[in-house]
Amino acid sequence: MAADGTDARRLWIRDPLAILADGASGGVVVEGSRIAERVPAGGQPAAPVDETFDASRHVVIPGLINTHHHFFQTLTRAHPAAINKPLFPWLQALYGIWGRLTPDAFRLATRLAYTELLLSGCTTAGDHHYLFPNGLESAVDIQVEEARSLGIRAIVTRGSMSLSQDEGGLPPKALVQDDDTILADSERVLRLFHDPAPGAMVRIGLAPCSPFAVTKRLMRESAVLAERYDCPLHTHLGETRDENAFCLEAFGQRPVDYLEEVGWMTRRAWLAHGIHFNDDEVRRLGAAGVGVCHCPTSNMVLASGHCRTCELEAAGSPVGLGVDGSASNDSSNLMEGVRHALMINRLTYGAEAVTHLDALRWATEGSAACLNRNDIGRIEPGREADLALFTLDELRFSGAHDPLAALVLCGAHRADRVMVAGTWRVIDGEPVGIETGRLREEHSRLAQHLFG
Fold it and tell me: Quick one: which of 10, 47, 198, 226 has the fewest CB in 10 Å?
């Protein structure tokens, strides 16, 4: 029975080549928007099904969950003003360029990022949008509209910058808003769009950008607002040594002390990057249950450092994955991010310490835990039917013996089928309802016109 009381059709995704779920070698049954049962090898569904999908060519995994991105940055990939720079000079080179962003450009950037993520097997897409130049006040509304149009599950965070260079921050005055404007709009979008119920397709988070771009008042009052509306909190923290030095100079404290002072040491919060924490800070973050989104590709591109994933998890912090902005990653491919997470963490911890299953877990269960969601991230009865199906038909997979390991080790990057809430959103490697050629042409033309 579906949530609306009507009979829901039952689909058996049958006999996959491999599946990332225990007791499901015979596949899974989807009923409505949820997984109804796992079928053991050689077994049959417990109740009749209306339709069967032959998955014998497919490796089935839970839909990947992206917990950090900046969609608007798809318009400034590999920009000559910013390449080959670390974070602070990179930001300073791009702030002025990003100020030219228009609503039409932002809509196309959002659509393209959602589409890229879907094609990589991502079913829940998180974005951290903190840029609100004049005319772009409806950015969150645009992102919600585009997510609903594409049928992707979304966590859209109302980001912000309120501490300009004039007040001792990093961004220019033209790109910041005052605290009262930010808080009023945060409450507006929470009332309009935030759905805290299980199975929600859209949730809103509050996401002041970083210690070097917002006031402490904004951090504190965002935490109060999040408690009132039962929504998550998100920010950048501990990404670079420059950020640590900024916090010490501006506030007389390290970033985790800052986080504690403003009331963010809570399971409601998850942090982007979380690289430069000492042992005591890792312990404190874990004890508080603060999540960390590991962004391996961006961390390598900007040479920001190595996230202490294993120590953070051991301390009690959920660890998820994110692609980060397309100007510091130059891609919105979360499956590629899974492979990069495996490689950089093996380099950090050793070949036996981190497996392909760990990297996949971070991108699914770990990301779901960062978002405080227990309805997605695993293939099990009662959870949402968010699934990514990959084939191993390309030359890169020839000779592979373990299909799940092959996805990561051999570099899978494009899903053949993607299901969100029980509905196919990618079929035969193409997004449903999107002409990718036209999207690329329009997006590229606008990127050159505005930012070239």
Answer: 47
